[in-house]
Amino acid sequence: MHKIIFLFILFCGIGFSSLAQKQISIEDVQAYGTFSEQKVEGLYSMNDGLHYTTLEYGNKIVKYNYKNGEKAGVVFDLSTVKDAAIKSFSEYEFSDDETKILLTTEKEKIYRHSSSANYYVWNSVTQELSELSAKGKQQLATFSPDGERVAFVRDNNIFVKSLKFGTENQVTTDGKVNEIINGAPDWVYEEEFSFNKAFAWSPDSKFLAFMRFDETNVPEFTFPMYKGLAPEHKENSLYPGEYIYKYPKAGETNSTVSVLIYDLKSKTTVSSDLGNETDQYIPRIKWMADAADLAVMRLNRYQNQIDILLVNPYTGDSRPFYTEKNKRYIAETFLDAFTILPDNDYFVVNSERDGYSHLYLYNRQGFEVRQLTIGEFDVTQFYGFDPKKKIFYYQAAKESAMQREVYFVSLDGKKQGKLSSESGTNEAEFSKGFQYYINTYTNLSTPLQTTLHSSDGKLIRVLEDNKALEEKVKQYAVSPKEFFQFETSEGVTLNGWMLKPSNFDPNKKYPVVMTQYSGPGSKAQEVLDVFSVDWYNYLAQEGFIVACVDPRGSFGRGEDFKKATYMQLGKYESDDQVETAKYLGSLPYVDKSNIAIWGWSFGGFTTLLSMEKGGSVFKAGIAVAPVTHWKFYDTIYTERYMRTPQQNPDGYDDNSPLLHPEGIKGRLFLIHGSADDNVHVQNSMEFSEALVQAGIQFDMAIYTNRNHGIYGGNTRVHLYHRMTDFLKANLMK
């Protein structure tokens, strides 16, 4: 039986007034930042655990007391440095003894997680500001633990700069574009394992371990680059240029990855023994606390077994330390949760072995000591361990899949509880020593709140309450979001949210725009208790109902719900979106003949597949940067959920929009950036041809030189005006 369950309707909080006069514009939400939340930037916990610093005005590092939140002084002020070569910086990092600061300037984005920059070092003892290197921009500059050196990557090679002598030592020499990368991941590792630094200093500063990517045999992908505007590539003004990089599509050859360890004293390098198999992944390296061994994660290509090896830094010999297996795949939450405790006798892992994502404690010999968290909920982040109080801190979706709370549990399991007090989405950042933490909190009616707490959860001070934004929102006709649930014909309960027009009349019928992402993974959840004023509020203002539902495959509801889509991405996700449309169409205030669905990336893929399955259920749809066949997407992501096309041909073909275009009955708007390095425009080009040959009329827009985010200059405003006009033309005739 289909029924709506309104969990809460928020007409209070920030005061969504029916008397509000101002109207939201697309420029407000896509260009001007009218409703942007203020955050505490550049926050860094100092060694004493009693102070933290923040970056202010782009040129000043200010120190504050955790105990009372009051200003304790200025650690660094660039404006007072005589004849400084730079005027501002965007990021900073202290050396371990906090006598030196690494400043990031002129940052230039490469891919999603990577960038190059010019770095400067401030020495507070000598009061000198010096350029790290004058030989070209660097990547990933990082102090050694003793603060005597900085390691960085340039031109695919690793360098070590001695701050004492000012010398620059080149550790590797074989780096070459599209062949060998040292110290930084290749494209697919960066994108799918979510990291950009592939080197690590040993705690005693004697060794530098790094990953070497040999991508020589990885197939190349090429796309044209035009002159364009914002930015303008004048070199392509007459003949287009080409961007060529290595991109392994599902089933194709990956980089061969090795782990090497450089001895700074002898200036020699040894190779780690990672076994005989080379068709595998090395998603993380991490030193043990005593620097005696390097822990290397080795993940098989199926991604259903991960081994942690301990490598001797002098010889490269390895021995097995820990193994985790899963009948489907190892979730990405495992990678960052693995933590060696300070005493070096215990470590923590995140496993789904009991059906939910939980923390487990192991001893140095690899034997399980105890399961630290237990229950029918997912642990979503591990914050760390306080060795003095013997307390573990973590974030979980315990009270609702749509919310996040901060919890603690003792080493012996006898003490446990919740630190966060507000209902919504909470995230903590603990001080060194775990005496304090800074909590960021938000819910549907509350913009981001940044608060300072003692480790027992007691509020010390509000650092940022976004009161100015709260007052601003009161001036606009902003509708409240409403959470709801419904049960599908298969008996599956799904969570969703809905936005109604500000002048909503239950006796009228409204067109609906369904928004969704629908993808798997911990960062792919859309129905969350967080504040936002965005394009969806604009659409509600213009007379649409906007609704979003997380289908099967989404995060926060246990392993079986999340991994139901294994080997058949798109099947259940699109089934659930079609069910959502039918359910919404049954509501008395919904015009079931005017329902649209839209999405970006995986959401674009789901849009296409839902329209093909749903037929006349959808009057229109917008697919932005969609995958149209998983054979076009990368190895790590696709094979994690689908295995290879050779192993699972039916899973790839049965749920490919490319092979079923004739099912689309509503009007489709297909959108892509021509320089999308993630989901290639090839997906939309091949799909548009399939539509043409199937006799399906559609609209299409290609944005020149734009990547997967489709932004730059006026691009975002143009895109959202186009999409709005399309929805109005097709749903409001």
UniProtKB/TrEMBL annotation:
The lineage of its organism: Bacteria, Pseudomonadati, Bacteroidota, Bacteroidia, Marinilabiliales. One of its GO terms (biological process) is proteolysis. It comes from Mangrovibacterium diazotrophicum. It comes from the Bacteria. One of its GO terms (molecular function) is dipeptidyl-peptidase activity. Pfam families: DPPIV_N, Peptidase_S9. Residues 95-447 form the Dipeptidylpeptidase IV N-terminal domain. InterPro entries: AB_hydrolase_fold (IPR029058), Peptidase_S9_cat (IPR001375), Peptidase_S9B_N (IPR002469), Serine_Prot_S9B/DPPIV (IPR050278). This is Dipeptidyl-peptidase IV.
